[in-house]
Design brief:
single chain, alpha+beta, 4 domains, 6-stranded antiparallel beta sheet, 5-stranded antiparallel beta sheet, 25 strands, extended
Length: 478
């Protein structure tokens, strides 16, 4: 790598261009910026195109720009390759642009390196010397679940990975970095306050063990639902906990901060006494416990095969080619005790652990298994032919219909696949066209039955569009 000691290196930027003179960079050119406040940052130049040469903005990242009116001077970063200088170990000062008497000049030093396990602060905008000898800049964004990070410098999270950067030094404090510093300071203040949190004696007269409050609420729930258990109550998420907040102990819901996995405590605010909180817990978990009646969930007993056979037999009536070998690569189900309560559980294919599949009744569980078996049956039935009816622009409640295709299957049956989306997302669904549709004597009668499965108001094409389609009529055997 380069021989220069980055800890002793200074970069002198001497050739600044004055915005007030209308002297602006090329479109997209990345520049070191001196702001009118005297602070420094960087960004790529994007003129507004309104006829004024200095109107526009310097782009630093998604929704992160500096208006040209805030900039006093700029200096291009794109034009330099410092490789030759950095390979000379005697060099400690590099001039970028000719020095002029009375000209604007600024020096940057105090460079650090990731090789020394030095990281910038989160959201800190930095000047970068890249490993290829070029200059760059960007806002530091630490990777969440692994070492390292990247310097974001443009929209769509365009970034310079830390493994491409030789050395870096901070630029000025901007509003984004200032907000991050304030957030970090607030976390420190909160940590200090929470070292010895105070508990309101009215609110915590039964102590600071949350289980005590859940158990007292459980006693009240059992007056209406004799089957109630703590496990059922805790299915109602997020589960309430007791936690410190702003120097006080509170009842709260705890979630994780997306950026740093720190705890976010949302306090309970619907009362001021312990008994009011217990009554709240009763209301909060009431519907979940009501739906957890084991007599409804396990009315067919605790042998999982009874439920699976019912689902299989029901699906087999329409999906005539289905056999149990087709189910090997799909969900596997069981009934097991979890935290003392019987639960339907499932795992996918070769996953090691079962997870709770929370449904309120035997009927609902069987329906979900049927859907799984139907999907497995369709995957196993090869397509032999297809037909896509033509259509114009169709708006589906904000999504656009993209694809609508009928398929003939190896078994002689049919299915249809519908795809819709918008500019950022989309999805597809498959529907089996049940044999009862084909018991209709005419194509028009067939469509009446078919559109009960794939209704036009949800999926775009109705009888008005499909009835005149002679090729579709022929494809479906009419």
């Amino acid at each position: 790598m380069f021989c220069v000691d980055y800890k002793k290196l200074s970069l002198s930027f001497n050739e600044f261009h004055d915005v007030s003179a209308g002297d602006m960079p090329q479109y997209g050119e990345y520049c070191l910026l001196e702001l009118k406040t005297g602070d420094y940052t960087a960004g790529g130049w994007y003129p507004s195109g309104n006829g004024q040469p200095t109107a526009g903005y310097f782009l630093r990242g998604t929704a992160d720009t500096v208006d040209s009116e805030a900039v006093a001077r700029w200096h291009s970063l794109d034009r330099y390759d410092l490789t030759d200088c950095l390979e000379d170990e005697e060099i400690g000062w590099i001039n970028l642009g000719p020095e002029e008497e009375g000209g604007r000049s600024v020096q940057f030093e105090g460079f650090k390196s990731f090789a020394d396990r030095k990281n910038p602060k989160q959201e800190q905008f930095c000047l970068l010397i890249m490993k290829d000898g070029s200059l760059a800049a960007g806002r530091w964004n630490k990777w969440r679940h692994k070492a390292g990070g990247a310097f974001i410098y443009s929209s769509a999270l365009a970034s310079h990975s830390s493994d491409k950067v030789w050395a870096w030094t901070p630029l000025g404090v901007d509003r984004i970095f200032a907000a991050e510093l304030e957030r970090e300071n607030e976390k420190k203040r909160e940590k200090m306050l929470n070292r010895n949190p105070v508990a309101d004696p009215e609110l915590f007269k039964y102590g600071t063990d949350i289980n005590v409050y859940y158990e007292m609420a459980l006693e009240k729930l059992r007056e209406e639902f004799p089957w109630a258990t703590l496990t059922m109550m805790r299915k109602c998420t997020p589960v309430w906990q007791i936690a410190p907040l702003h120097g006080k102990v509170v009842f709260g819901r705890i979630s994780k901060n997306y950026y740093d996995d720190s705890d976010i405590v949302t306090p309970w605010t619907e009362g001021g006494t312990a008994d009011e909180f217990i009554d709240f817990l009763v209301r909060y978990t009431h519907d979940t416990v009501k739906r957890s009646n084991p007599e409804e969930k396990f009315k067919l007993g605790t042998d999982i095969n009874v439920y699976l056979e019912k689902a299989f037999d029901h699906v087999k009536k329409d999906y005539r080619w289905l056999d149990k070998r087709m189910l090997a690569d799909t969900w596997q189900y069981d009934i097991r005790k979890v935290d003392g309560d019987l639960e339907f559980v499932r795992r996918y294919r070769d996953e090691g652990e079962y997870s709770v599949y929370d449904v309120e009744s035997a009927e609902r569980f069987i329906e979900s298994v049927e859907y799984d078996y139907q999907s497995a049956a369709l995957r196993a039935n090869k397509v032999t032919a297809s037909y896509a009816p033509s259509f114009g622009h169709i708006d589906l409640h904000g999504w656009n219909l993209e694809s609508y295709v009928f398929y003939k299957l190896q078994s002689g049956d049919y299915k249809v696949s519908v795809t819709a989306g918008d500019r950022t997302t989309g999805g597809s669904r498959e529907f089996f066209i049940t044999p009862t549709c084909f018991e209709a004597k005419t194509y028009a009668q067939f469509l009446d039955r078919y559109l009960e499965i794939v209704p036009d108001y949800s999926f775009g094409l109705g009888k008005k569009e499909l009835l005149p389609d002679k090729d579709l009529k022929k494809f479906l055997g009419y």
